[in-house]
Amino acid sequence: MSYLPDLSALLVEGASFRGGGSAYVMQARNLEAVVLPTGRVVGCDPLLGADTAEPFTVSVAPGTYALRAWVALISSARAVPQTRTAALQLLISDREAARWEMALIPGQDPAELPGDGFFGYKVDASAGALADEVAVRALRDWTYDDYEAVFIADELPPPPSALGGITDKPTGANVISVSTGWGEGVYPTYIGYAADGEPTSYVTDFLVTPVV
Fold first, then answer.
1. 162 assigned to some structural domain
2. Residue 146 has pLDDT above 70, yes or no
């Protein structure tokens, strides 16, 4: 069976978990809302390059949606407490998710995954985002100076280290990036569905907390 965390338990203010000798406490951080002019959602590292980003097969109605980062406060007897961005959630509605399924791009089949395997987007610059296809594609025409002005800081704020702005001026579509857990890697995204099958949110799991 492919990797599927219990996100309904993870995405709760104050939720706590233990594993590997450490304690994890979840804290919500509301970020700037995301404009989706097409409703085709992309998960990506915005600094890796827009050419490789493809929208998920499940889209939503165009609109402006809340974005929330989930930060884990990690403490143990062996190390100084630290915070890491554990998940990034694009909220489509405030309805409760009755089930979660892996977000896929065309050509991906979960049946082909090994046990605990997953599909995800590659991160090389320790940054992750959930944004509209239009906003991500617009990055193709950006120069390094454009990236530096929006996504690169001399000193990052603490996790979730949110940075970003409008990337497509005609539509107002924007990209808000956050720090990605432990940094580089491949991170899965999941879609929550209400009992009637309507999407409630997209969540990228940065694989920080123990599997719940």
1. yes
2. yes
